[in-house]
Amino acid sequence: MDIKKNDDIKLNIEAMTSEGSAVGHYDGIAVFVRGAVPGDIIVAHIIKTSKRYCIGIIKDIITRSPSRIKSDCPVSDKCGGCSFRNMTYAEELKYKHSRVKDAVERIGHLDVPVKDVIGADKIDGYRNKGQYPVSISDGELYAGFYAYKSHRIIPASGCKLQNGAFDGCLSSFASWVEKAKISSYDEKTGKGLLRHIYLRRTSLGEIMACAVINADTLPEKEILIEELLKNDGIKSICVNINKSNSNVILGDKTITLWGSDVIRDSLLGLTFEISPNSFYQVNHDQCEKLYKKAAEYAALTGNETVVDLYCGAGTIGLTMADRAKKLFGIEIIPQAIENAKKNAQINGITNAEFFCGDAAQGAEMLENRGIRPDVVILDPPRKGCQRELFDTIEKMAPKRIVYVSCDSSTLARDLAILDEKGYKTEEITPVDMFPRTPHVEAVALISSGA
């Protein structure tokens, strides 16, 4: 039986996808439905068909899943942020565990113990960074998040994931927009001023507020500064210049309008400086759990040489430096390397060296210098590691590799490559860094077997 657009079908919801859509099967065809929960039996109204799958929306819920709860966010069904707000947290963790395990088995073809997910004590208000696309109409600012797979902005004041202090900052930006008659950027024409509002808040309560603009200067900056200083914790007010015709949020140039160029955070007893372009984990408390697990897997005794091949601003390696003989960090972004060096200096860490470069080239440079790490740390971007990097790691012959991953599919692929080179994955621990969203991190312990 063919499924046609506008058909209504009865559908048993079986699972969730990596993007947070529910899925069921009808006559062997996968049907994807946003907002459904595994265990639901629904009437799905079909809005798109293809030979391999269909997309539907919920028309009616015949039987409610035991895991279904009422969403406490008025826009969660429209916003592309939270996929699991209508599901119990226990069921969410169950899904995230199965997602990592399935990837390792299906993509990596490996039989590896996947431990229980390290869940969050705090599933709301955990984000320390907010990046809000904006639209301005008749002098009124609309800031929020994009609807699922669109560039349509859903206003989201009171977002459950963001730090509560951000709402006051958004109100300050709204006052500036009204008083200074600010326009919003139109990606179709390339005209208009304000592109994004970018906010950061550390566990120490320090806030950085940044206007991302399509111009070289910010109009009426004194008004914006005055409005933002009404909020407690403001330490840095800046403007980021982005005149590119792209969907990249931040440009390369940032100008501080008031206060400090950076804000500071405390993580596992160390102090870290954060600039607008610095990579820094958005969930402070879960980041500490992730890094503790990484340190447990590294099993340092004070005699080891550690190489961190995607070191960013040095956070993972520096939190282990007191248990290492020597730490080397490689990162391709120059500003991040400067941040890493400064973070080592701030914390009085003298056994760390950081180099700017591509991970594969940096690893080869260290190998050519005769540096033989006992432990290699990998924390690559979502696309995973470059294949040639593993050839150099093989030459380095570390005893252990600790792999921190933000994508279980590329993790599974890379673990399979390491397996071919004689490196055995001992175990994997998923960590829920982003409660109520489909994303899950994982940290893997890999040993040489030597």
Explain this structure.
The protein is an alpha/beta fold. It has helices at residues 89-106, 165-180, 221-228, 284-298, 315-320, 334-346, 359-368, 387-396, 408-420; strands spanning 8-12, 15-16, 22-26, 29-33, 41-49, 53-63, 129-137, 140-146, 153-155, 194-201, 207-213, 234-241, 253-259, 263-267, 270-274, 305-308, 326-331, 352-356, 375-378, 400-405, 424-431, 441-447. A seven-stranded mixed β-sheet has the order 9-8-7-10-11-12-13, with helices on one face. It has a seven-stranded mixed β-sheet with strand order 18-17-16-19-20-22-21, with helices on both faces. It is globular and about 65 Å long. The N and C termini lie far apart (57 Å). The model has no long low-confidence stretch (mean pLDDT 93).
Question: Keywords for this structure?
Answer:
alpha/beta
Give a short overview.
The protein is an alpha/beta fold and 450 residues long. It is built from 9 helices and 22 strands.
Number of helices: 9
How many whole angstroms does the radius of gyration measure?
Answer: 24 Å
Distance N to C terminus: 57 Å
Give the class from helix and strand content and strand pairing: alpha/beta
Low-confidence stretches: none
Helix content: 10-25%
Shape annotation: globular
Q: What is the beta-strand fraction?
A: 25-35%
What about the largest sheet? 7 strands, mixed
What's the pLDDT, averaged over the residues? 93
Number of strands: 22
- In spatial order, strands of the major sheet run 9-8-7-10-11-12-13
